[in-house]
């Protein structure tokens, strides 16, 4: 720069008073000169020093470096260009000397950084410095598989830091190469909060395969990613941990709308409901209404943004009404529909009666059958206790016939039983039709 000023002085002394056009030309030349100086400095642009990568939380690293002490810091345009190489490529510029990054860490983490000088003509860059975080030990077959998690708003609390409590439920499969004595442990991180699972469900070999947090620090309105980390231990092998990031809106199960009510007035259904238990205010919801009837099934589906609906009905059908909700896009990236509310019935012929008939009829039939089987048994007993006694006969011929008749008492029993069974069957048939 000094050199330039010196030349500027020289220029001024020689030509200033003479020709303005020449001055303009020379100003152009000056710019070229400056560019030359910059290109000279390209070779002096030095990479940062002491570049380190440190895990500072679940699925979270801190990249830190120091400015090169030999770098002249005269340029306000000096920035750092960070490049993430693994597990997923990413790059960005920053003016600070550290940067936080959220990423699964079970495959390790690698990044590079260099100094760059942004000018309006082109960018000059130093060489790269790189650092890495090694993958944790263990073969990948020992890690858990198919991890899925869902969140749900459970209660409204007046005492807690957050007005609404969010639960978390995760399930996974045991790694295919995990020894039988493997035990897994789940942790989650949301923002600065990290918690270990306290309520596990186990498989037949007593290995944890699901976890339930009745309440968490997760904010369902938050945009941060939820990090889930599952590590494990075994006497026979190193168990490789597993990290997965979840976007809260994608895994949030919206509750069904509350207090659904139906009223029939002038051949219309007046349906109303309240927003689901949720941290989001009422205007954040879309609703879907399902009206089914006994005549033509679930013919009516309505997409609504209000919490009221009026539907014309006929006189003969029974209607069942269900509503479900989803958070809409101005409030949050729209997720999937929540669960349907419990059906509410309305109309002429009450559905519970239909169900009632379905229970009563088979019960009655069973009862009748039972009575007849009882009668049957009693008859059986009767024939055993009192074998049929022949009526007294006067002549010898007749007696002979009777004694023959008496001998096979078994046959007689069978005949009686058969008779009762036939009667029973007929009666049952009659009672059914
Ligand atoms: C680099 O790290 C070393 C050791 O921690 C430290 O002494 C040195 O001052 C650091 N360099 C810079 C430029 O901060
Ligand atoms: C687990 O995930 C794999 C790959 O994503 C899939 O092929 C498999 O069907 C899943 N297993 C179960 C039981 O869901
Ligand atoms: C699992 O991870 C947690 C959190 O990082 C750590 O405190 C714990 O010691 C780890 N357990 C095993 C068995 O590696």
Q: Could you explain how this protein is built, in words?
A:
The chain has 433 residues and is an alpha+beta fold. The chain folds into five domains: 1-42; 49-133, Sandwich (Immunoglobulin-like); 145-251, Immunoglobulin-like (Sandwich); 258-347, Sandwich (Immunoglobulin-like), CATH 2.60.40; 353-385. 26% of the residues lie in helices and 37% in strands. It contains six helices and 23 strands. It has helices at residues 2-15, 20-42, 248-251, 351-385, 396-406, 409-432; strands at 49-57, 60-66, 78-86, 90-94, 98-102, 109-118, 123-125, 129-133, 145-156, 164-173, 183-190, 193-196, 199-202, 208-213, 226-233, 242-246, 258-265, 268-274, 285-293, 297-304, 308-312, 318-327, 344-347. The strands form six sheets. Strands 3, 4, 6, 7 and 8 form a five-stranded antiparallel beta sheet that branches. Strand 15 and strand 16 (242-246) form a beta hairpin. Helix 4 runs antiparallel to helix 6. The protein starts with a helix and ends with a helix. Bound molecules: 2-acetamido-2-deoxy-beta-D-glucopyranose (3 copies). One 2-acetamido-2-deoxy-beta-D-glucopyranose binds next to strand 9.
């Amino acid at each position: 720069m000094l050199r330039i000023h010196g030349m500027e002085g020289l220029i001024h002394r020689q030509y200033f008073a003479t020709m303005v056009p020449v001055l303009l030309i020379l100003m152009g030349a000056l710019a070229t000169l400056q560019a030359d100086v910059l290109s000279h400095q390209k070779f002096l642009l030095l990479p940062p020093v002491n570049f380190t990568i440190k895990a500072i939380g679940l699925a979270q690293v801190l990249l830190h470096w120091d400015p090169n002490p030999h770098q002249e810091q005269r340029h306000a345009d000096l920035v750092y260009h960070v490049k993430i190489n693994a597990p997923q490529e990413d790059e960005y510029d920053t003016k600070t000397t550290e940067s936080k990054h959220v990423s699964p860490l079970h495959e390790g983490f690698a990044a590079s950084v260099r100094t760059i000088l942004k000018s309006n003509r082109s960018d000059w860059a130093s060489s790269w410095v790189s650092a890495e975080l090694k993958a944790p030990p263990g073969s990948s077959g020992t890690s858990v598989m198919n991890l899925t998690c869902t969140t749900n708003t459970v209660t409204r609390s007046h005492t807690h830091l957050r007005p609404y409590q969010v639960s978390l439920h995760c399930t996974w499969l045991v790694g295919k190469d995990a020894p039988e004595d493997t035990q897994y442990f789940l942790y989650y991180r949301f923002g600065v909060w990290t918690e270990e699972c306290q309520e596990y469900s186990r498989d037949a070999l007593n290995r944890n395969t699901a976890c339930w947090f009745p309440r968490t620090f997760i904010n369902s309105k938050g945009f941060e990613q939820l990090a889930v980390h599952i590590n494990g231990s075994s006497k026979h092998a190193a168990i490789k941990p597993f990290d997965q990031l979840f976007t809260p809106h994608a895994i949030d199960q919206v509750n069904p709308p509350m207090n659904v009510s139906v009223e029939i007035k002038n051949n219309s259904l007046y349906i109303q409901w309240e927003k689901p238990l949720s941290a989001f205010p009422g205007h954040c919801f879309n609703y879907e209404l399902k009206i089914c009837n006994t005549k033509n099934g679930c013919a009516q589906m309505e997409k609504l943004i209000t919490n009221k609906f009026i539907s014309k009905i006929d006189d003969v059908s029974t209607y069942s009404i269900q509503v479900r909700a989803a958070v809409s896009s101005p409030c949050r990236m729209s997720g999937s529909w929540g669960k349907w509310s419990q059906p509410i019935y309305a109309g002429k012929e009450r559905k519970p009666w239909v169900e009632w008939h379905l229970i009563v009829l088979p019960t009655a039939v069973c009862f009748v059958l039972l009575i007849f089987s009882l009668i049957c048994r009693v008859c059986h007993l009767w024939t055993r206790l009192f074998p049929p006694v022949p009526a007294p006969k006067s002549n010898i011929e007749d007696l002979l016939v009777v004694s023959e008749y008496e001998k096979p008492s078994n046959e007689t029993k069978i005949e009686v039983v058969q008779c009762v069974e036939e009667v029973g069957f007929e009666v049952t048939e009659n009672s059914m039709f």
